[in-house]
Specification:
By secondary structure, the chain is of the alpha/beta class. The protein has 2 domains: about 160 residues, Alpha/beta knot (3-Layer(aba) Sandwich); about 80 residues, tRNA(m1g37)methyltransferase, domain 2 (Trp Operon Repressor, Chain A), CATH 1.10.1270. It is built from 8 helices and 9 strands. The strands form 3 sheets. A 5-stranded parallel β-sheet has the order 2-1-6-5-7. The chain has a two-stranded antiparallel sheet with strand order 3-4. Helix 6 packs antiparallel against helix 8. The longest helix has 19 residues. The model has no long low-confidence stretch (mean pLDDT about 95). Bound molecules: adenine. The site of adenine has 11 residues, from strand 5.
Length: about 250
């Protein structure tokens, strides 16, 4: 998968060299290219923002540099490939596990993290005619820019790429994983030693009885979802668990 990020803070994206995403790059599974938007700002101060039409606080990112930057990135494709354009904005559609899964199937993603009050609307309109454009929010809060959301989205997408996580099965039981976990939070997990500060690992987990373990995990997931996310619980399908457990 190829990923391009256009930003005024290229150094903000350095964590893409670390850990899971860094290893995926080193293994050739991800081709990440970070571009400095100011390359495409031509005045003496390399200005990328200006005051908003209609008045109001803050600044808006000028369309000129973004248009040139996107044209240059699109022109760098060897053939007729077109990326999905991912625009992080608190006014976007929610970024969910389902969207991470969908984006993980695209061969090429271009991210346009903005600063200030966002990008002049005409840029989105211009490229929406040519590309699949997704305006995406990572949550109901406002950050100072879209770079942290890009890190969040890239990590969620990259771990779904074939070969990135050691064990493809490891996605299946994640919170929000499509299927039985779609609207559920994963329950608690334990490792050795079997007793720590007088606290024991739940007996069922050391029983070796896969059926009982599966049911216990389902019940814990339901319990935790009711406590932390009551909004999700009405969308859960406990029968999906039993179907899955019968299949495996
Ligand atoms: N930019 C600022 N806040 C954001 C958010 N919550 N999601 C995506 N991009 C953003």
């Amino acid at each position: 998968m190829r990923l391009d990020v256009i930003t005024i803070f290229p150094e903000y994206l350095e964590p893409l060299n670390v850990s899971l995403v860094g290893k995926a790059r080193a293994a050739g599974l991800l081709d990440v290219r970070v571009h400095d938007l100011r390359q495409w700002a031509h005045d003496r101060h390399r200005t990328v923002d200006d005051t908003p039409y209609g008045g109001g606080p803050g600044m808006v990112m000028k369309p000129g540099p973004w248009g040139e930057a996107l044209d240059a990135v699109l022109a760098s494709a060897p053939g007729p490939e077109r990326p999905v354009l991912v625009v992080p904005t608190p006014s976007g559609r929610p970024f969910t596990q389902a969207l991470a899964g969908e984006l993980s199937e695209a061969p090429w993603l271009v991210f346009t993290p903005a600063r200030y009050e966002g990008i002049d609307r005409r840029v989105i309109e211009e490229y929406a005619g040519r590309l699949d454009v997704r305006e995406v929010s990572i949550g109901d809060y406002v950050l100072a820019g879209g770079e942290a959301p890009v890190l969040v989205m890239v990590e969620a997408i990259a771990r779904l790429l074939p070969g990135v996580l050691g064990n493809a099965e490891s996605h299946r039981d994640d919170s929000f994983a499509p299927g039985a976990m779609a609207h559920l939070l994963e329950g608690p997990v334990f490792t050795k030693p079997p007793e720590w500060r007088g606290r024991e690992v739940p007996e069922v987990l050391v029983s070796g009885h896969h059926g009982r373990i599966g049911r216990w995990r389902r019940d814990e997931a339901l319990r935790r979802t009711s406590a932390h996310r009551p909004d999700l619980i009405e969308r859960t399908d406990p029968a999906a668990f039993d179907r899955r457990d019968r299949e495996t």
